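Hello,

Following up on my earlier ticket. Below are the two sequence lines again, exactly as submitted.
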Amino acid sequence: MGIVLLLTIVDMSWAQNADTVVTNNNKNVKGYIYDAVSHEPMIGVTVQSLNNTYVWVTDFHGYFNLEVPDTVKSLKLSYLGYETTLIDATANDTLRIYLNESKGINLKEATIVGRQSNTTISTLGIAKTEKIGLGELMKAACCNLSESFETTPSVDVGFTDAVSGYKQIQMLGLAGTYTSFTRENIPDIRGLAAITGLTFTPGTFVESIQLSKGAGSVVNGFEGTAGQINVEWFKPFEDKSPQFIINGYQSVQGRSEGNFVANHSFNKRLSTSVLLHGRGDFKKVDMNNDKFLDNPLGSVFVGANRWFYFGENGWEIQGGVKAIALNTHGGQFNHKKGDEQLSGNSPWGYQNKTDRIETWAKIGKVNLETPYKSMGLQLSGIYHDQSNQFGATPYNGNQRSFYTNYIYQSIINNTNHIIKMGASAIFDQYYESFKTVNFSRTEIVPGVFTEYSWKHTEKFNLVAGLRADYNNLFGTFVTPRLHIRYAPTQNTAFRASAGRAQRTANFIAENMGLMASSRSFLINSRNFSSITEYPRNNYPFAPEVAWNMGVNFTQKFMLNYRDGTFGLDYYYTDFTNQVVVDIEKFREVNFYNLNGKSYSHSIQAQLDYEPIRFFDVRLAYRFYDVKTTYSGQLLEKPLIASYRAFLNLGFSTHNHWKFDYTVQWMGSKRLPQHYDDHLKKVVVSGKSPSFWLMNTQINKSFNNDAFSIYVGAENLLNVMQHPLIIGASDPFGNNFDASLIWGSAMGRNIYAGFRINIAPKNKNN
Amino acid sequence: MKNIFLTIIAVLIVGIVSVKAQNKAKIQTDTIHVSGICDMCEKRIVDAAYIKGVKRADWDKNTGILKVVYNSQKTSISEIEKNIAATGHDAGKTKANINDYKKLPECCAYKEVGIH
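Thanks for your patience. The regenerated structure is below:
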């Protein structure tokens, strides 16, 4: 929350000090002030300029008429027991303002809400951010975070392998591990869960997602090479948050899901949410008849509880806990849990058990006298334990992490110059065992940062950040980042960003999908089986370091009286070091430090337009050029589509029907050396065919969205990768590989579900 | 494969061009005052304003001003006012019938404001 407040302050336009004003053109700002709930006029509300030079108190009708210089852009409204509100003082019209009773937050932008499409890209804000709202999330009716990106052109979603059922994402052609995931700006799935962790956030918990490509703010850390994805949960104190959400989902492929969210405010200060999710897969599905289950059986439970407290004097405190228990097994059709994994003895099996607990707290304080001064402290702790079995290969991992970040914000002279500074510390302890080898390491990374934001009129702003961190294994490193925005008109924005990012690769956990094969694992060309014990903290590689630069252009337009947005962006990522995952030789995967070039170019064009009222069209096309040096040879990264085209059509009616249709074309991908089951020989290289994917959904809601039902189909054309698993007939043999996934590992899926959404009692607006 | 996308773009362009030609018809922009309070009112008013012939309607919650773009050969400002007033909101010169007003949701009851 502290951060939300800080950001709100950044976005506001503040008046300059009256002392600095030379010209003295005056204007009158007038209007009526009402109570937001009772709509009664409010007498005695103080209306004043931000420097307190000009003051008015509302009369019996709630009326005010204040003469101020033209330079005053906003006015502060204050009344005991009500939220102090800033209003825009640039309008000439008579204003009607509704004040909310205070919940302890003393600074809040008066919200202006029109009809918003489901994903919005603004020309405001320093970084180009795609805000994925509830409407968009509902298009993927069930589902966890990885699946909620299936209608977002900026993100590619694919299976990690053909047995575990995990999905991973890619941004800018780089693996999901290069994107930093945060929950309300606290790092969420770092470390061992970097790939699998997307499964642990059910879509029903999520109120909105913000996605931005390229370098992020130094305030949130030094990671995030490809971009940031921030997830906002439902907040119990917000008027728009429903009291209850109950959601049920069933697919013909045997996936059952239930979700429950309850929000409750005890009083103006204290509120809580309870969030529950359960998923079960009970039906054995093998649509491509390769004797392997398309999706593992088992269950996932997620439970969370969070609390908010708004104290006096601008204090706010929140804390939460989230627990996850996952238990799945899959593999060959006849495999039973606990079957001995010996060649010829029993079916090949996959097992995964994960237990995870996350806990977090945020403490924020806004100075009431000087609301531009604030501070926030973020704390979080993670315990993660997983055990996996891929055939005869065991993999176990354990992570304990602790994170803290302190942010102080103030201004220099006026709010056109905002300065943030603070300090953070990360503690990560990992224990992993893979086959016969044990790895363990402890990383402690304290750091300090500062970030300066400069705003020059509404047209230009700049954010420059710098941080310095010390890593106990790798030493000190400096992370500079820069963002510039230029908006010549209200509807046009040019933005540029550049920055450095560093991370330590958890190369085993992040490549778990490769364990679903008979590949031998090598570190620096040395086989794992020849290593028995890795000395503690002797991490075999250098940290991954990359520089990212990006430019983008957003143009809003009106055509035939309908709104649209056109966006074009280009990002370039250049790795100084990378832990290369080399699968160029069949039967092995080799990890080593980058020796040569590794880069990614990404270009994306996107058009959003509403040609007819309630009919939204989104067209997107993107191009990637991702290359890495594999053993001295610069090659296109395998299993990445250079081209992707995307079309989404959404139509809604007055009587609350919604129709949604997505079609995408995925270009061909490079395949590394592999064994071909048909030719019965090793193929040096190849290309996967391009393919189409279609999803559709119909949604009907009743009684003001209180109840809705939906049916949908994924992969309507039933396009599946063939063969999905190489050497499926002999999974203990040398040619077995279930990790070369370029297409859909699941066939057509039909699903249906319902959602009960009980609105809050005091429904306003 | 890509042809389908090109086709879609072509259809969009053709649509835009044909619409451009149509612009020679009597397109008129007017602003009227419509009584209302909240976001729910905005949805109600804008929905009611979109009758046949209306190209675009935007209502500003703070000022109560409805900006409406319409084809004057197909509809008129009084038609639009009438349709909005039928939902209970006073629109321009057309006042809402008291029975229609009473059907408004609680938060849209604009006449209660200021009486106290």
